[in-house]
Design goal:
By secondary structure, the chain is α+β, with helices and mostly antiparallel strands. It has ten helices and twelve strands. A five-stranded antiparallel β-sheet has the order 3-2-1-5-4, covered by helices on one side.
Amino acid sequence: MSGTSVVNVRERTAPEMCNEQDTSLAVAGCQHIHVQLDEARFIGAFMTSVCRTLEVEEICSYAARALYRRAPYRRIVFAFPAESIDRTICYSPTEQNPTDISEQSSHDGEADGFDPAQSASKTTTIELCDGLGVVTIDPVTEQSYGLSETVLQQVALIVSQAIRNAVEHCRVKNLAMRDGLTGLYNRRIFDEVLTQKIQNPDTCPLSLLLVDLDNFKWVNDRFGHQAGDLALQTVARVLKDSCRGHDLVARFGGEEFAIILTQTSGYNAFAIAQRIRKRLAKTGIPCDGGEFNLTASFGLASSRSVSPMPASGIVKQADYALYQAKMTGKNKVCVYTSELLKSALASRAVGNGAPCAHAAC
């Protein structure tokens, strides 16, 4: 009929249908490979970023920024238990730096607006290896966080290894800084810190105490070296407990200790030394079912302002004062003065233990 068109519909043959299916599978396969390559590139970049530091806070910061660029979130919390680091670090994209919330009572960030109980249905939790900690991610939307399970597993492995490296680095670094017996800072750290502090106007006035145990050889001879070691550990604990957090207590060598008192005048340092001396004398050291007591002599030197002299200069001054304390009866505090220097030099030259007439003992 005129005006009427006839369309012939031909059924597709089996080979044609197979070709279409093959094409669809090929496209899907290419898309899958593209996704895998993209994830592999991200994982490589993530590893490079996170593993370039040995500081825990920096590791968390780098990881948080890399993850946010990949898939934005509202908040991410890194929680490390006491067995490893005992810290909780929260990172938010609205802040330039991670916010350390380790002092908060909660290790889940709830003190700063993050409540896992309310967000449990949408948060993503990454368990780190070997119980190192947990990473909790709070997405921007109600949907789950936009990373595949494969990527999250790789993130867990990479962050875990980075944290392990940081913990081990901290352990080795701490061993290099500490005295093996007492746990106090060693002589090398003392020298480095004193050099910095004595030239820093923010830490002046600065005072230095040298502490030497009286008649310590008697302890080793009578009770044995194990008792001597216990005595050194007990004294170290008393010194540490008697000082402020920003003071440095170090084992100077043998039975001698050193204390750097920053922002402390000679007058105040003398009062601190007297308090420590009395506390030491009252501290009993257990041995063979009983206990014994030790006393100590103190040498004190102070610098009122930034000093042009090297750190070794104030050490010598405190050593002169300590020598006079030893020569004039022990179990006392002597303060360095110019007159004391003359007296100490004279008594050392003569060897008669001249009295400390001009020192504040």
